[in-house]
Every structure is written in C-alpha cells, then in structure tokens.
Amino acid sequence: SVVGAGTAGEIKIAWWGQSMFEIMTPKGSRIILDPQYLDAYKPRDMTADVVLFSHFHNDHTRTECITNIKEALQFNA
Description:
- This protein is mainly β and 77 residues long.
- It is 0% helix and 26% strand.
- It has no helices and five strands.
- It has strands at 12-15, 21-24, 30-33, 50-53, 73-76.
- It has a five-stranded mixed sheet with strand order 1-2-3-4-5, with no helix packed on it.
- The relative contact order is 0.21.
C-alpha cells in the first residue's frame, strides 16, 4: 500500500514463539515485543528500532537475536 500524509499503510506482525512479536510499521520501523531465545522457537537474527519488555523474566528479555540491540530504544513496562 502507498504510505503518505493522511493515509493508512499496512502494519505487519510476526509471531516468533513464546511471547515474542515483531511489528513493522508502514514506514519501516521495527518494534520487537518480549524477545526470547528459547530452543523451541529460536528466531532469526533481526534488527529493531524499539524493543519492549513486559517484565523481567528470562523468556521475555533475551536479545541475542537483535543484532543492533545497543542502538535500539529499549522500554520496560
């Protein structure tokens, strides 16, 4: 879809297992929610603009797959 002032674009959401989701905004920003790195669901390497953590349990804060974690904005609930 075409993205511009006053128009809606497509938002893409991917589930990467457990509670991890990746959201891509219409303008290309990537938001990662509750990153995990569990053997059962190991996500691919990815970049993020923003990383959100709902709480500090080991299965919600594993950032090994986020290759630019030092540059990404990080927020805790």
